Amino acid sequence: xxxxxxxxLCALVLLGLMQASGVPRTAAQEAVARKKVNSDADLPRxxxxxxxxxxxxxxxxxxxxxxxxxxxSADVESVLAGYEIEDKATMRGLLGTRFxxxxxxxDKAGALAxxxxxxxxxxxxxxxASSGIVSRALLQAWTxxxxxxxxxxEKTFDKDFAAAVNALPWDLVQDQVKGWKAQxxxxxxxxxxxxxxxxxxxxxxxxKSLDFDGASQLLYWREYLKFALPLSxxxxxxxxxxxxxxxxxxxxxxxxxxxTLAESDKLTPVRVAIWDSGVDTALYPKxxxxxxxxxxxxxxxxxxxxxxxxYAGDLQPLTxxxxxxxxxxxxxxxxxxxxxxxxxxxxxADYRNFMTxxxxxxxxxxxxxxxxxxxxxxGTHVAGIAVQGNPAARLVVAQFNDSLANMPFAPTVEWANxxxxxxxxTGDYFREHDVRVVNxxxxxxxxxIEEWLNKTSTEKDPExxxxxxxxxxxxxxxxxxxxxxxxxxxxxxCAAGNSDSNAGFLGDVPASLHLPNxxxxxxxxxxxxxxxxxSYGDTVVVDADGFxxxxxxxxxxxxKFSGTSMASxxxxxxxxxxxxxxxxxxxxxxxxxxxxxxxxxxxxxxHLIDPKATVALxxxxxx
Length: 623
Fold this sequence. Notes:
two-stranded parallel ribbon
């Protein structure tokens, strides 16, 4: 959500209140009336009771849905009027919800103005260039034709949208454009309904309510079904000639920057921990740490189950059903990648078929398995990136399941304190076993714990859920930060997050922490351009390749995944190579060299790591 949009909307709402009361208010009075928002936790929480499932509400008649829409609209306006929000991502979110409400209410002028506000609040060049172009062309055609359907409307939309697409800078937006085209290939009302039944219905089953994020998502889907979906064929048709005319891949800058070490480099073995969902250690037999006296845990590190109990293992054990589902999940992962890149492969066809034809109830069951297996693969994929090109790397496993919002039980203070103790034990383990680099491609916040409570708790009051979530989060944060402080000789590398938000505003842990032995990493693509998803903030000091990065998943298949989860281990990889070359380096010295070796983009937003430049600085320093 954006600051500019927030301020503009607040001004409009306050103006309306002033006119209604007939009493003018000074700027100072307005400032006093609004509560300053310093973090996501400062914002109010809302809850929307449901008579049935979210999918029932999505398909309800206008009168039923409009009553829900009015409640959400009142809450949006109350926040915009009553809170001073400088965080642009928060403002973009609030205004996006306002836009959907305006569209569903037939307020064309208001919706068009809101689109402009959202675009002005975009922080990334690609997002600013492409923001709202489908909706803007739709609104222009609606205004000119006097209707949102029919031959005249469609003709005007085709003209306006094609002009907008052809004006886009391909170098900036090619990934977004390909993604739009891929989505048009599977777009259908059934897909939307299936998504809601598979994702939202199970989450709301216990609470029988939607939180604000869920309500906003449902408004988005309703607006999409009414306005955007009927144009999906036309959107896809307009994108095809644009893609064909410009389809030249961005240059890959990373190969020229890569450093590959060899045994002849006089390397010192360096222990690199993957604090994640586990690692298929069978894939890395020559790059594996083995504890000579493992005790109750496994020989390659620590592992904790969902209740925080220590056990011996490198990967979470799979059930028979999960094992059976795994080959299909791999196939869908490859198909999703191929489809998003417009590769016409059998895997892409299988993916499209799965997304468009699988019955909702069947897909809901499978998606639960898919969610687990995606996070189960995560640590192994990260490990492959972290140790690539470094024969001195010795992998250490620190395994737990960080998918808090998908836990099948409600959190308790006792549970949180158990994991706090686990984290502190993990920090002790890193220090006692001289682990020099730890990769942490995960993050947790109050918001995630609230989402978890909304799925599992019977508590109806959103403010009560928030208060309890803050208590759980406080314990969790103490555990994470305490672990890092317990290992001052260890460099911790963490991912910035994938929500296109300020990690500090959200309170993401560990990405929001300021510690001398922690470095936070944002994601760029193969050409060094910001990804659409990467989060940011004052702790994010360098960026690395986090777009379609190839590595292993359990069993040995190689897949390409995107995320700051992939950018972070690229920095961990560089740090481990530096320490293998010079084991006397401290975390602070390692960070300083990585930052000094990075090059800053012309707009000052990105600080791209350059392993060759950093290693050259290290060798120059050693002379």
